[in-house]
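One example copied in:
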Amino acid sequence: MSDWIEKGYREYRGKEINVYFNTAICAHAAECVKGDPAVFDTSRKPWIVPDNASPEKVKEVIHRCPSGALKYQVK
């Protein structure tokens, strides 16, 4: 969403869900990477690929983020 972009989040687009990430507030707890490395993989660019899992799985992993650095929008 444009609100998140204005607040410093970067958008990663998928077919059914978009993921937003703000590096400035990330606590580096790695809940995303541990939760689904197919979607969240810091060794690749882009490091977030929303289409590598179901929207439900992506949402579940994002809800684990303790800092609020990850957000999502279902299309």
